[in-house]
Amino acid sequence: MDIGESIKMAIATLTANRLRSGLTMLGIIIGNASVIAMVGIGQGAQRYAAGQFESLGPNTLFISPGTPQARSRTFDIPQTLVLEDAKAIAQQVPTVKEVAPQLQVQQRMIYRGRNLTATVVGTTPTFLTVRNFTIDRGRFISEQDIERHRRVVILGSDLATKLFLNENPIGQEIRIKNLAFEVIGVMEEKGAFLGNNQDEVAYIPITTMSSRIVGQRSPYGMSLTFISLSARDENSIEAAKFQITNLLRLRHQIVDEDDFTIQTQKEALQIIGNISNALTLMLAAIASISLLVGGIGIMNIMLVSVTERTQEIGLRKAIGATESDILTQFMIEAIILSALGGLLGTAVGVGGVMIVAATTPLEAGVAPVAVAIAVGVSGGIGLFFGVVPAKRAASLDPIVALRSA
């Protein structure tokens, strides 16, 4: 019997039992769809994170107090960075263009009975250029605001909308920690950064934040949450990191482990990429279990099919069909089930990825490699798990098969 005739017989057998064939393919369909969707969404998350970091500017560095190990051992942020450190970096590190110190806390804000809790950031005029932000209305913090500890505030776009609704906030007063602050500006919409809404933030002079909101928290000066800075150009990033490290170690009189952490944009993006890669692989591995379950389902149904078709097998062998013919037909049936399930699963997975891309900020896309691997694995699973029932059918003795029918 030629291969074409075997394929026709396999298709006829499978279509005669549509419900059973469909249920048999279900595990393969779910497995393929899950693998393709998980890989596509994971890659979309990576692209989204890369876009978020690129919005900061290519030459940005961040200095945070303490080391990752020290921060993981306590809920309190170590008080090892102070404003004088930021000033020293701006004055003494030639590869640094601008420095933006930041001190931030969560505070309740009130305006005419409307109140909410949001992040309040104490910073300096250089924040706009270092962090690539833009003012929409009004103005940002000035050097005079810093020197005179003025109680002025700039609101993020969402924060301004929630507090003032359709009213113009410029010139109005809000209360922060029971102190009156004049609204002098509204930021242009920025969007979320790694899950944090940057448009629900208020900005005040860093001196006002230290003296009126949080108070003195470090014996060495005004403590900072972190320092953002920009290098002069992309080629200066590593040199800036090296020079800042030496300067801070000297200022903090460090002999052993640093009490600060410096991260470049590229390093932060690499960490995020490694995390998302690990999560994608884990989710894809979990989804792949469905392919294994689907393969076992194919083997079980094919074994049942061998039992049900004992008379057919015996009759075919009695009129001249060889063991190779029987083996080929059952193998083809298993491969058709897994391949068709793989194609349907691919369609479902691609559709799921397109829906995610259309309804979320993730730039999810279909990875051709994931599709090829999923379809190839599903076909291989059908071939692998179809061997046992196919061999069992081929080895049936025709006389015994006809007697048992």
From TrEMBL:
The organism of origin for this protein: Candidatus Synechococcus calcipolaris G9
Q: Where in the cell is it found?
A: Cell membrane
Q: Does the keyword Transmembrane helix apply?
A: yes
Q: Which residues form the MacB-like periplasmic core domain?
A: 21-246
Describe the family membership recorded for this protein in Swiss-Prot or TrEMBL. Belongs to the ABC-4 integral membrane protein family.
Quote the protein name from its UniProt record: ABC transporter permease
PANTHER family to which the protein is assigned, alphabetical? ABC TRANSPORTER PERMEASE YTRF, MEMBRANE COMPONENT OF TRANSPORTER-RELATED
List the InterPro entries: ABC3_permease_C, MacB_PCD, Macrolide_Exporter_MacB
Q: Keywords on this record?
A: Cell membrane, Membrane, Transmembrane, Transmembrane helix
